[in-house]
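Suppose a colleague, Dr. K., hands you the sequence of a protein chain of 192 amino acids and asks what its three-dimensional shape might be. Before reaching for any lab equipment, you can write down a predicted structure in token form. Begin with the sequence itself:
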Amino acid sequence: MTTMTITGDGISIKREVSEETALEVMEVAMSDEMNDDAPTVTVALSGEGMEFGREVSETAGVEAMDVAVHGGSRMVAEREDESAGADGLPDDFFDRLSTRQRVMLEILLESDGEWMRGTDIRQKMREDYDMDVGEGGRATAGVIAGLTRKYNEEFRREMIPGQWADETQQHAEFKIGEKYKEEIQRGLKEEG
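The predicted structure, expressed as tokens, is then:
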């Protein structure tokens, strides 16, 4: 097995991946055409006979994470709650939310099921919630990665689905998932 790490402003992910997946991640990193103005992350691979590190665009970092997740990799650290999302939100869901995760859920609920670009989410976090949030997509990716680390990818995708906003794959957009929408609304209202 090879250890893959992706680090950047507000994000730090570590996964064990197969050699085959590591080669695919390396291919993604090597083919990245980085824009000088775009936010970056560092993708690193280390294992028996393999050491690789490269600064790539945030977009390539997200693609590398996607390859790792769908390439049969597994988290290095054990998750506390593998059953999240089976029959509703975990009992401690609202207790475990960070402030940024809570605010992002509130913003997505306000959009009433419509897709929102990460740039618009971050702008609302800054302007409407007076939060210190970075300009680049790493801030949004970090909030989402935190939910994935606490629970699992499938649960996070059902709660906050994401997609590329256009064919350039430079901007991601998100919305609140229907499966947990009402439960999240009730929980946030009860806390507010």
